[in-house]
């Protein structure tokens, strides 16, 4: 799946969770991505973030950052 498509999908998820308030948006987005996205999709969106994250909304960017494996 192309990075543009992943960004679009992630931002759509972000739009839904933004309506629940800022304190719930980032954890809600991250949990959704963990539950419903395949590992390769999560890896691809993390790689996109590593490459600059063009197009990711701020809450989505923070949620993807939270998906990074602990170092």
UniProtKB/TrEMBL annotation:
| InterPro entries for the chain | Formate_DH_dsu
At the top level, the lineage of the source is: Bacteria
Protein name as it appears in the record = Formate dehydrogenase subunit delta
User: From which source organism is this entry?
Assistant: Rhodopseudomonas telluris
């Amino acid at each position: 799946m192309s990075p543009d498509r992943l960004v679009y999908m992630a931002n759509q998820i972000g739009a839904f969770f933004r309506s629940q308030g800022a304190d719930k948006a980032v954890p809600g987005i991250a949990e959704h991505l963990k539950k419903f996205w395949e590992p390769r999709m999560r890896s691809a969106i993390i790689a996109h973030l590593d490459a600059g994250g063009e197009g990711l909304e701020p809450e989505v960017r923070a949620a993807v950052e939270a998906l990074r494996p602990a170092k």
